[in-house]
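Predict both folds.
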Amino acid sequence: MTQGAGRRRVLRAAGTMLALTLVVGCTPDEPEPTTPPATTAPTAAPTPSPEPSEPVAVAPTRPAAMDRADEAGAVAAAKYFLELFAYVLSTGDTTEWDAVTIESCSLCTNVRERAVTLHASGGMRGGGVSIHSSRVIGTDTTINARAVEVDYTFGAGEELDAAGETAETLAEESGTAVLDVSFTEQGWVLLEGSGGQTETS
């Protein structure tokens, strides 16, 4: 598997914590092949299609609805955590991610490690996330947690090498994630998550 599948890999790596009987996404037989930039162009290398989205340079804003301990708060938290996921991979800044995740969360650890590795080798350009819809699909009152299903699209992007050149091309991809969130004394935290790709362009 190439580095270009990194966003899918970190989402698929963890199973959801709540017993919800919902299966999220399917793993394709093999990743879509990527075409390296042409080396014979007289000027700059051609831009992959679709073009990479703008870099995610600013951390997402925590929504006011996250102050609520109800379903609306859970949905707002899940959307924020997925936006934060994209921000961490884009920038390597894990400060807020560490503040809203728990130590036993496999997805959270995978995201942190992926971001550190990615930015130690050159970083990333593009790859912002758009969220289309979200809904609560299960509740566990024993741990004050809810599972939220979120439909998303990651924009096209590029993983860079140490010289700032394109090392891997990231195609636009859409999928569904399930994020388990819990309202605690410090507010909403991410307990676990998983997801799968449904479309690539």
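Second protein follows, with its predicted structure tokens after the sequence.
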Amino acid sequence: MKQNVASAIVLKRTNYGEADRIIQVLTPNHGKLSLMAKGVRKVNSKLAGSIELFCIIDITYLVGRGNIERLISARLKTHFSNISKDLDRTNTGYDFIRIINKITEDEVEEDWFNLLLESMQYLNDFSINLNIIRVWFYLNIFKLTGHSPNLSKDSLGSEFEENNKYDFDFDSMTFVNNNSGIYLANHLKILKIASSFSPSKMANIRDVEKLTEDLVPLIRTIAKTTLDI
């Protein structure tokens, strides 16, 4: 049987039998894999401490003929331990993993691995506001799935004006000029920035925490409408 080595992020763990566990992981070069970790739930298992969530691990596995490969070894490479120290960040990390697992197929591009890796790095950094990370994450999800909202012009094809107010039209995925709208030009600027720059680079922008807090309900609704996540 062929033996492969890969870096991996754990997406899901399912108990199997009395002592085994099926591990679903995301890798940069081999897509998503389902691995049988034999005896991992035994007290003396060498695998147990290395297949946790919010970690980068190096795995060695045997490629079989079915859909589940055999995990031979796993070595902890990076543990983003700060995520588990804060409940909001822990729950957000679970959400990110769930979303990526749900909308990706087994043959998945490396960009998805990189997105999840970067997400965990930012969640692990307490200096970066959580809503900044959320806005950034969802905009990258939209970009990778081809569901990005129009952030260059409004519904009439006009440039966004500094003093105008806007609402969002989900049918056309554009912002609509509306005197009673709840979004300002600064909200749209933050969305543009978040689609091109990292959360760490956004952290020092004026009023970014309040603006991203306003935007989180919108991007979650866009995600639910377009991707059912």
